[in-house]
Amino acid sequence: MNYLNIKDDTLMPTVVELNALLANYHIYYQNLRNFHWNVLGENFFELHQKFEDLYSDARVKIDEIAERILTLRYHPMSNLSEYLKISEIKEVKSHMSDKEMVLTTLENHKILLQKMGSVVEKASEIKDEGTIDLIGAYIRELEKASWMLDAFTKKTTSKLKESVVEG
Fold first, then answer.
1. In this predicted model, what pLDDT tens digit does every residue of 109-135 receive, in sequence order?
2. CATH of the domain at 30
């Protein structure tokens, strides 16, 4: 029974991109756990909690991505060795400054956002609205988290671009 209204022979490129996103999310998740456990300094309380919030969110997304792959009637990748092989996000060392941890997290976000764009591109080609909807929401949420982390890295004297109203 085909409950998707998508031709089976067109699904593979989307599934491949979803598995790549899944692999990257797993390494990202572990990096966040590493940062949560090892952050030190005057920003400890704020960042310890922020990293926990981020890895908790990543854990949910990992499950949802795997379940989307299952919904498309494929098995998701599920071995750490496979994730490490294809992930663009790499494991990080444990001893970093708090600012390095935030900057690394932002770099991980950049990779995740690129991967999500690839998933949406492939899903759009086959009109896979379920995948597009799922990943579109992830993009919005990760962009907001990135904005907040980026703001953390700025000096208090930093300024945003001015809004211009044409009249």
1. 999 999 999 999 999 999 999 999 999
2. 1.20.1260.10
